[in-house]
UniProtKB/TrEMBL annotation:
Record's protein name: MFS transporter
Major site of localization recorded for this protein: membrane
Molecular function as annotated in GO: transmembrane transporter activity
Record organism: Streptomyces nitrosporeus
A matching Pfam family: Sugar_tr
UniProt keyword terms in alphabetical order: Membrane, Transmembrane, Transmembrane helix, Transport
Subcellular location as annotated: Cell membrane
Chain residue ranges for the region called Disordered: 1-20
Length: 452
């Protein structure tokens, strides 16, 4: 079946007003907050590893290769999880997967307390990464399918804000725990701290209904209409007559009508996260080589700048448009990394300025990671498309995370920064060539191939 959306089409009359409108608005906000709670867990799972790895390296006697593997394990798992569980979410439904992935977060977090060797730790981090990949696909699809077009951009963008909140909290907690104890096993508690947000979000998500758009795409029209009327106060919008059925499978993403948007979402996301994870995972080492003091403050400030930039991106997304918000930050981050690459021994003020500019503009545009993939694919392949884009992006993120410690040792920090600059330039070129403007469009219209 083709994409079926629950938002009122033009000409269907005015929407709900008064108390009913406020009720619907609260429900949409709840959907976004519960989806964002999963993003907090995602950011937490990935954020704690930076503080935990140096302690685990000493306790488990990890070689540089093991440090790189464990540091990138969640990203490798995310690649597999995005591919498999995005497709599964389109097959069996959003609501089931919405709860299963939080159970995996909770169990995996606690298992990190009892791992005994690098192999066991690697296995747990891989599984948790797969759950992160699943949650990326589920959260974006649910928000896109429940929220009205007027609020969709901001609420989808808020998912990335939640991600940075989790990442920043995890980084700060990890630094604090590492500095306040001499316990050789403190890294276990740092990694296991993700159990707390996972439990809270799991409980909050109980009772979330299935997406009416997904139900309708599977032919369950009566159920979809009932949920749409009860929860959203509007009739289910039927697909346009010219829209043919869309099959839920990965090969559909590479059909001629969807290939360009599949390449665009995958490549722009890859170009954003590759330098980010490469730098942030090893921020203490990178900042130290650039002359910053090794007290954890630089890393924490980097994450604060990222959070501020992300909030700014969410605030301006509907004013400047999706395309501009993606294109110009790629150009600015490329310049910041170019300065660091050509001048690695610059004054600490210059280093701080470049890192601050990189963090602000990268984070501001990173809100598009939740927006674009959720808007440009129809319901039947929406989670599959998000999952594939997330998976492809993590090829670069995992490679960057694995290679950074080796690259710093072999080539130096300047060369690593220049490679990050080259990736940002590639992202700008991909955006200039392929990025559509989807702001304010109904989901069915935003995801309709241009040829129709």
């Amino acid at each position: 079946m083709s994409a079926v959306d629950v938002h009122s089409a033009p000409g269907h009359g005015p929407g709900p007003t008064g108390k009913e409108a406020r009720r619907i608005r609260r429900f949409e906000t709840r959907i976004a907050v519960c989806a964002g709670g999963g993003e907090i867990c995602d950011g937490w799972v990935l954020g704690v590893v930076g503080a935990a790895l140096p302690l685990a390296r000493d306790d488990l006697r990890l070689t540089p290769a093991w440090v790189g593997l464990i540091g990138s394990a969640s990203l490798i798992g995310l690649f597999l999880g995005g591919l498999v569980f995005g497709w599964l979410t389109d097959r069996i439904g959003r609501q089931k997967m919405y709860l299963i992935d939080l159970l995996v977060f909770l169990i995996g977090s606690l298992l990190q307390l009892v791992v005994q060797d690098p192999v066991q730790l690697l296995a747990v981090r891989l599984v948790m990464g797969a759950a992160v990949g699943a949650d990326y696909a589920i959260a974006g699809a649910l928000v896109a399918e429940f929220v009205s077009p007027a609020r969709r951009g901001r609420l989808l963008a808020s998912l990335i804000v939640f991600w940075y909140v989790g990442y920043t909290l995890a980084t700060g907690l990890g630094i604090a725990m590492a500095s306040l104890t001499d316990d050789a096993s403190a890294w276990r508690w740092i990694l296991a701290s993700s159990a707390l947000p996972s439990l809270v979000v799991l409980l909050a998500r109980l009772g979330t209904p299935e997406s009416p758009s997904w139900l309708a795409s599977k032919g369950r029209i009566a159920e979809a209409e009932a949920i749409s009327r009860r929860r959203l106060g509007r009739e289910l919008e039927r697909p346009a007559a010219e829209d043919p059925p869309v099959r839920t499978r990965h090969t559909t993403l590479f059909a001629p009508e969807y290939l360009r948007r599949t390449l665009f979402t995958s490549l722009f996301w890859l170009c954003q996260v590759t330098p980010f994870f490469a730098i942030s995972t090893f921020a203490p080492q990178v900042l130290g080589l650039l002359g910053a003091p090794d007290n954890g403050l630089g890393e924490l400030l980097l994450n604060v700048f990222l959070l501020v930039g992300c909030l700014t991106g969410m605030a301006v997304i509907d004013r400047v448009g999706r395309r501009a918000l993606l294109l110009w930050p790629f150009c600015v981050t490329a310049v910041a990394l170019l300065v660091l690459g050509l001048w690695p021994q610059a004054h600490q003020g210059v280093v701080a300025l470049c890192f601050g500019v990189f963090a602000l503009f990268h984070a501001g545009s990173s809100v598009l990671q939740a927006v674009y993939p959720s808007e440009v694919f129809p319901t039947a392949i929406r989670a599959t498309g998000i999952g594939l884009a997330a998976a492809v992006s993590r090829i670069g993120a995992a490679a960057g995370t694995f290679l950074v410690p080796l690259g710093l040792q072999a080539w130096g920090v300047g060369a690593v920064m220049l490679l990050g600059c080259a990736v940002s330039v590639l992202g700008a070129l991909v955006t200039a060539a392929w990025a559509p403007e989807t702001g304010g469009l109904e989901p069915a219209r935003a995801s309709r191939p241009r040829s129709r």
